[in-house]
Amino acid sequence: MFSLRRALPLVLALAATSNAWADASYHSLQGGAYFQDWSDASLITASDNWSGVPSVIGYRGDGMTGASGTDPRTLLGEGTITVDVNANQSDPNGFGTGGVAEFAISNPVLALAGSGTARGPSLLFHLNTSNRYNIEVNLNLRDIDGSADNSTQQVDVQYRIGNSGSFTSVPGGYVADASGGPSQASLVTPLSLTLPAAADNQPQVQLRVLTTDAAGNDEWIGIDDVFISGDPPPPPTLSFDSPSVIEGNPPGSTTLTFTATLSAPASGGDCSFSVEQFGTPPGTPATPGVDFIFPSPDPDVTIPDGQTSATFDVTIVRDTDIEPDEQFVVAAYGEPQICDIFSAEGVGTILNDDALAPPDISINSISLFEGSGGGTTVAQFTVSLSAPAPAGGVSVNYATANGSATLANGDYTAASGTLNFVPGDSSETFTVNIAADNYFEPNETILANLSGAIGGNITTAQGTLTVNNDDVQPELSVAAALAVEGTGAGSTNLGFI
Questions:
Q1: Is the pTM of this model over 0.85?
Q2: CA 62 to chain centre
Q3: In sequence order, which residues have a C-beta less than 8 Å from that of residue 485 and are 6 or more positions away?
Q4: Interval 245-269: pLDDT, tens
Q5: How many CB atoms are located within 10 Å of the residue 290 CB?
Q6: Where are the beta strands (DSSP E) in 78-162?
Q7: Beta bridge partners of 399
Q8: What is the distance between the terminal CA atoms of the chain, rounded to a whole angstrom?
Q9: CA angle (197, 198, 201) in 5-degree steps
């Protein structure tokens, strides 16, 4: 810190001024980059008067901290608002009033140095970043103090949105010491910074370059060659919708209309491009010239300046063919400057309206051994479709009926229900329980009938379950018998087993 400054209350009083002597207009980066190298000596002609310097004001930074050597990254408020500039100085080695000073030296510059009063002197740049992005700040920190002073002169670059609230340090904007040492005035520290995205496209952004009162005698650090710019907004992105249309039947043709849309209105001219049929669709490919007729030559499409969309048409060939829905891909090409067409691609879908033949429904016939022991044997029928079930599915009812086997005799348990085929399914099953008895009997049959089909045609309506007898046939045998004839009248019984 400059001990001399702390003994000069008169100088401190003279430094106080009003914002009436400042130009706080916001420089529009859309109109051009901001540049200031202080080479125009007419910009500042009187102390504390910034009215001739567009979009920048110097502040003394009273009361921002109560201590020397404070890290400027911790000083995010404003302190006491005191506009400051010591005009037309010529000797940075000997000038001892801290704050902001104009030095008319061989390479003129505005410089900052702290003091017991100027605790956080700064330059505040006013920027309008509307319609600009990736705001870049380039400047040089120049050590112009060749005196024997040897301070650690910290500098931080900060920003805020609007004209109130706390500042935020810009990443990479802190310099631990911008001075080069005693009796040296040659160090230049260049800074090249990009403001965070929050500063993009804002009507008011304030950029502050701040130093603090150093421990010991401060050195003057010039803020020079300030160049601030931003990129124009990225061009609006083009996209295509993916329309569909019912094919229709002859005669005539059907029109499929695509819509090309920009993410924002075209600006600065028309968005013009061409469209080609190109690429592989996700579904069944349509055949050019057979299923659709793409314009020849490729159509040119224009979205006028200020607009967001335009349309183009493709002719669809009508037919009566039974076929799946078909697709084709269109893509944009060209080199427009107004819009980004790189990823513009759409899928057109031709919806088939010719009825697909419903699948045939059939049931199989099966046979198995009855089993024994009084339990149950399970038989399984399979009902099949001639083609996978279409959209909407297929259903059919089933029910068992007596053949030579009967419910009355307890030969089997009746079974009935509905089989549902989901789209893509081609077979379903149902079961019938058979009584596994121990009776010798002929082979028997059980019938299974289909009815009430929806979404398909029954071609084999009845299946037969043949239950093969597996019980042993009993054999009859007579054993030899012997009896004593006896005497006298009467008879003798002869018993056979």
A1: no
A2: 48
A3: 492
A4: 999 999 999 999 999 999 999 988 9
A5: 11
A6: 86-89, 99-103, 109-113, 122-128, 133-143, 155-161
A7: 416, 449
A8: 140
A9: 85
